[in-house]
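Limitations

Structures in this collection are predictions, not experimental determinations, and the ligand pose is part of the prediction. Treat each record accordingly. The example that follows, with pyridoxal-5'-phosphate as the small molecule, is included so readers can see exactly what is and is not provided: the inputs are given verbatim, and the output is the predicted complex.
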Amino acid sequence: MKECLAKRMRNVNPSFVREILKVTEKPEIISFAGGLPNPKSFPIKEINQAAQKVLTSDGASALQYSTTQGDIGLREFIAERYRTKHGLDVSAKNILITNGSQQGLDLISKIFLNPGDPVVIERPGYLGAIQAMSMFEATFRSVSLENEGVDLSEFKEAIADYLPKFFYAVTNFNNPTGITYSAERKQQIANCLQKTNIFFVEDNPYGELRFFGEDVPLMYSYLPKQTILLGSFSKTISPGLRLGWVCADEEIIGKLVIAEQVASLHTNSFAQKVILQYLQDNDLDEHIAKIQNMYQQKRDLMVAELEKYFPKEVEFTRPEGGMFLWVTLPKGISAVEVFQEAIKQNIAFVPGDPFYVDKNGVSTLRLNYTNSSDEQIQRGVRAITKAIKKFLRECKINCVSDNSR
Ligand SMILES: Cc1ncc(COP(=O)(O)O)c(C=O)c1O
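Predicted complex:
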């Protein structure tokens, strides 16, 4: 069978997270593994009202084929929000509605990448992007991610040596690390990319989920012609509706529209009309504020539990928003082995391995805090601590922190 497949399929593995999620479907599992929003945040009643309104007032067009670029009202809403909240000079012409931002990643890869084309990504990087780009046989060069963003000298070297088609980054409350780029680092990166043909693909599904601290300007405001910005309603309204978008220069949007036409004709027009109706009848900021409160409380609890129980040799990030934090175990301890031990006690998380394109057996892991109850967070952290301590005792080498983040 393998030899019948296109070459590009041969090295693409099913998502490690999806495989892990299969185990976590068991009801007894406490899962910090997936990137699931808390279902308590879903505006079920309001979406129900919006759907009924759409069907009653505009049912025929909601159920008909539609334009590829997406509902004009929805694109205007998104562009207006970028103008007022972020000062971006964009209009509906700069927006393409996609089937989640994941489809945006696929379409961007499709229009930019020939087999073997170089791209620069973060180390660790979002595994859904690694998968999307792998499908188009990208060659990856990863640059280490630090507290303020990617390491600048490594980044400059990668750009100069590699001349990538684009640099892909999750700059706010990064998946998997929870790290947010500083404005200074963004400016430095913009300076490097100016006067090149290299694009910055800024993936921003978590940007609205800030708990504290100041917003950092989007890359689009530093490099408007060279930034391709991805957004999503998955983390603010509902992932099941599968609505995301790409915001970019009109010329790029034109190419993406062609790719979208081929892929799916257009994104689900009923879902687009329902979400637009929801946005017209409700205050999105008020809704997001409720999610921020709920998630901050969970983030604070998880951080407090980790501070209380984790051995001092274990490091972890303290995100200012988003859904994840990133743990670095002492060097020599494999996160996969800790996972195997933790899962015996029905606790799941994602070992760091799938977030790297060039190594495995790593000592890092991702914890999601948004989709567990307080009691589950408390129980889960204690069980992971127990698993880590088992390996810490067995660790023959000196426990030096792994700097390979
Ligand atoms: C960084 C990042 N990009 C894209 C996506 C895909 O999101 P969507 O539901 O909008 O397709 C995710 C999902 O978790 C993500 O974490």
